[in-house]
Amino acid sequence: MMEKLGSIFAWGVAGLTALLIIMDFFAGGIPDGLVWFYCFFSLAALMYGVIKSHALVFVMKRSIHTVISLFVIATASFLLLRTLPGGPFDQEKALPPAIKENIEAKYGLNKPLIEQYSDYMLGLLQGDFGQSYKYLGRTVWDILSDSFPVSLKLGIYACLIALLFGIPLGLIAARFHNKAADTASMTLAVSGVSLPSFLTAVVAIQFLSLGFPLNLFAPELVETLKEYEILLPVGLWETPRHYIMPCLILGIRPAAFIARLTRASALDVTQSDFIRTARAKGLSEQKILFKHVLKNSLIPVLTYLGPLVAGIITGSFVIETIYAVPGMGKHFIQSVFNRDYPLIMGLTVLFSFLLIVANLVVDVLYKVVDPRIEMS
Amino acid sequence: MKILLLFMVLVSLLFTACTKRSKDTKIELENGEEMILPYKETLRIHIVSEPPSLDWHKATDTTSSLITGNTHEGLVSYDITKEEMPLRPALAESWEPNKDSTQWVFKLRKDVKWTDGVAFKGQHVLDAWMRLLSPDTASEYAYFLFAIKNARAFNEGKETDFSKVGVSLKDDYTLVVNLARPMSFFPSLLTHSSTFPVRLDVVEKHGDQWTEAKNIVTLGAFTLKEWKHDELVLLERNENYYGKKPSVKYVLARMVEKYSTAVRLFDSGKLDSVHEVPSKDLRKLRKKPEFTPIQNLLIYYYGFNVDKPPYNNKILRRAISHAIDRDEIVKLLDGGQTALRSWIPKGLLGHDASIGLRFDLEKSKALIKQAGFEDGSKLPPLVIGFNTNEDHQRIAENVQSQLSRNLGMKVELRNEEWKVYLNTLKSDPYPVFRLGWIADYPDPDNFMNLMTSYSENNRTGWGNQEFDKLIEAAASELDESKRIELYKKAQKLLVEDEVPAMPIYRGVRNHLIAKRIKDYPINPLGYYRFWEVKLK
Q1: Alpha helices (H) along B251-325
Q2: Which is the most buried residue in A114, A191, A286, B150, by most CB within 10 A?
Q3: Are A102 and B155 within 8 A, CB to CB?
Q4: Does this complex have an ipTM over 0.95?
Q5: Chain B window 453-482: which residues touch A at a Cβ cutoff of 8 Å?
Q6: Is residue B102 in a domain?
């Protein structure tokens, strides 16, 4: 019964994910209710994993650590920010001192640092990230809740692309170790890791949106292709067609990284005793690969997945600016240039929270994948 | 990679198999509804960022004022169809100063309605100015009205009774303004969006949310239909506008932060205009038929920190200004800028191209000798500061090479991130530092006032009573030709004699404007008012 429940959850999450993607691409969007259901279902699945692998105490301990870490991070970034020269309201046009005082009074910047700090932390405890200093009248919460969903979507698709391409590529390389397929896929992977995304993004636009090299000798054909929407848009974030390129380009680097990880760990597993036994038993190479090698070589990939997910769903500055995606990535850079203290703080706290949670989920998944792993 | 790319092409083929593209724009509104914007009725423009605030008492940036300038109006406006941009009546039908220009009387229009149907009245102007000046609003541009009697004291909290401030209503449609000092150009201040009227009842009802599309109440040629944060702003023609109604029904402003992305969207027909193009792409873009440059009211200058020896000596400052060939810099930038030697740029009253120090090495060397140095190589190394930016870097490097080539001087360059740089300028500016100034309103006072001894924006540390007096006299002078004479004198003092700053060039703004657009409102101030625009 318990076993069955586990596979119901696993398949359920996979199936729902697929359903959501299909709906997003072909049915013109996902109803909010379904998103909530998906969240609860995944959470339930995770809780089931936690309970089944007797990790409840561990998770609770880690949750306490999370709160402490967040507190330390918020404090450190609050203080570090104040050491930056230049303030949020410094502009090219200097202000008369009285006006400057009015502004500082309004935003509480004239209070002693310790008071500013305690005000901020008290607000944070109540989930109040404060007002942006740059986008007047908008709260940090407004800004995050407008831009995070976009980055989240972009990031999730990029992660899926990374997994869908990375793992098979790594497996192929391991299966045909030292053969042409290995060399080919590893060449791909190395170039994927080393090519910077601002380059791949622009090259991809040349090929996929502008029709290079067709546009050099048959510009009319390219016009027709554009007319019939066969070429991809150069930017913006409106329909699923607009998602393809940014997600793909964002996914390339992690895909390449995952491919290399999978290959290394699959090679390692292939040499272990139990695989020799399986071979001796007369199992086919295909079966060995998918049934035994794959599952065991995923542990390093899982380790990498924690920070990857946290990093990628909070947005990429390069991809979002090149493709004009209204996500959160640009705020990471610009809020610092603007000295928009509350927004920087909000982003830092959100990012740290996601990173810690992602790592926690990964730790739980370790245990689910390999019950021998001890958690402390 | 190629396999990947090929695969994605196939996938995209599948998705889109034979759906012919419509040129209309489909956008999703905040409430989830879809809206079709017909191609023939929609002007699609580029803005570089989210407008930081559509509260015109708080906004200080060009993106916000572009939106506000199209949805709202002030008492006075410009005729942007003429090159010298004369003032024209807007909410005020007419205005009249007293003899010494210390009192101005504005007659307001009686036929204007806000977008919610309420009639416009003088009280809305009074409310707005009170809000702008009130310390609680903490408006950065409150100083726009500091010319009014007691306005400064009210903003500083020294005067709490607004009725003591020199502005009052004679009746619902007659506004009387008493100034603290004579000011011949007071009406041109009222073109600035920070002085526009406001509906206090709306602000009070919605709090910080009053600038959202569903709450805001304005009275301009367009209304704010939709503001999707970080993504787009949609304006719709205001059918109840009192003036000539715009010919386009919608203006869709898309936020695209990267200029090269905006250019790409323009090329693919998603945008009708780009207001600024990246300087590194200029060579390629200049060949396009859509390329439209315009000289704007921006001056780029190098200031001296006159407290730092040896440049506390004006003879030496003159020598340096003589030794920099502005034409070489402009040629290097190759972006359509023009070399500038005088302080007031062309297009403004008082501009005189003959003012300023010409490139003259003989004179420069003689001046260095006069200052007590044998030649340029004996001068201590000169440090030039600028904020980190590719173009500023190129200019500073050029000045460095010119000074070392022409005078044998040693020059060191220092760059800093923008806010750090601003901080340095405030506390201890570099011996020579770069800055620029863009006009807020097209009046020479806006440029000349910058260098008065009491101006917060004068970072040189230079103060000259004679100069201050000339500027004050010019500001109160109603006779144009006398005003021009005063500015001539002041400019000579500034850039020929004392030289606390060296003008380098006058800026330019390069646009891309689609061929289907007629009468795009480009002007030296960068004020884009879209009601004249026609679409083909």
Answers
A1: 259-267, 282-285, 314-322
A2: B150
A3: yes
A4: no
A5: 456-457, 459
A6: yes
CA distance B208 to chain A (A): 5
Q: What's the CATH code of the domain at A272?
A: 1.10.3720.10
In a domain, A334, yes or no: yes
Contact indicator for B369, B506 with CB cutoff of 8 Å: no
State both tokens at A314: 């909070």
| Closest residue to A136, CB basis, from B52, B230, B436 | B52
Three-state DSSP at B299 gives strand
Indicate yes or no: CB of A321 within 8 angstroms of CB of B457.
no
* Among B257, B295, B263, residue whose Cα is nearest residue B277: B263
- A131 to chain B: which residues are within 8 Å by CB? 208
B195 closest CA partner among B96, B103, B91, B111: B91
Q: What pLDDT digit, counting tens, does each position of B124-172 carry?
A: 999 999 999 999 999 999 999 999 999 999 999 999 999 999 999 999 9
Provide the residue range defining the domain that includes B168: 73-199
Domain-ending residue, one of B144, B172, B199: B199
**Cα–Cα distance measured from residue B243 to residue B248, given in angstroms and rounded to the nearest whole number:** 15
Whether A15 and A84 share a structural domain: no
Interior CA angle at A196 toward A190 and A199, to 5°? 120
Assess if residue B265 is contained within a domain.
no
Pairwise CB contact (< 8 Å): B53 & A137: yes
Helices A197-204 and A240-270 meet at what angle, rounded to 10?
A: 130
**Chain Cα centroid distance, residue B311:** 31
Q: Which domain holds residue A212?
A: 53-369
Q: How far is B29 from chain A (nearest CA, A)?
A: 12
B31 domain-assigned? no
Among B199, B215, B235, which residue terminates a domain? Answer: B199
Q: Do the chains contact at B257 and A323, CB–CB below 8 Å?
A: no
Q: Express each pLDDT in B199-235 by its tens digit.
A: 999 999 999 999 999 999 999 999 999 999 999 999 9
Q: Is pLDDT at A95 greater than 90 in this prediction?
A: no
Residues A38 and A183 placed together within one structural domain of the fold: no
Q: Evaluate if residue B504 carries a pLDDT over 90.
A: yes
| pLDDT(B251) > 90 | yes
Most B CBs within 10 A among A109, A234, A249, hence the mutation to make, goes to A234
How many angstroms separate the CA atoms of B174 and A40, rounded?
63
Same domain, A19 and A114: no
Packing angle, helices B2-16 and A240-270, rounded to 10: 140
Q: Is residue B19 in some structural domain?
A: no
CATH classification of the domain holding B102: 3.90.76.10
Closest alpha carbon to A348 in A69, A14, A18:
A69
d(CA B375, CA B382): 14
Per the CB < 8 Å rule, is A105 touching B8? no
Interchain proximity B12–A232, CB inside 8 Å: yes
Please tell me whether residues B195 and B341 are part of one structural domain: no
| Contact: B268, A209; criterion CB under 8 Å | yes
Residue of A nearest to B418 (CA): A337
Interface contacts (A, B; CB < 8 Å): 176
Domain total in chain A: 2
User: In this prediction, what percent of chain A has a pLDDT beyond 90?
Assistant: 54
Phi and psi at residue A315, in whole multiples of 5°?
A: 100, 150
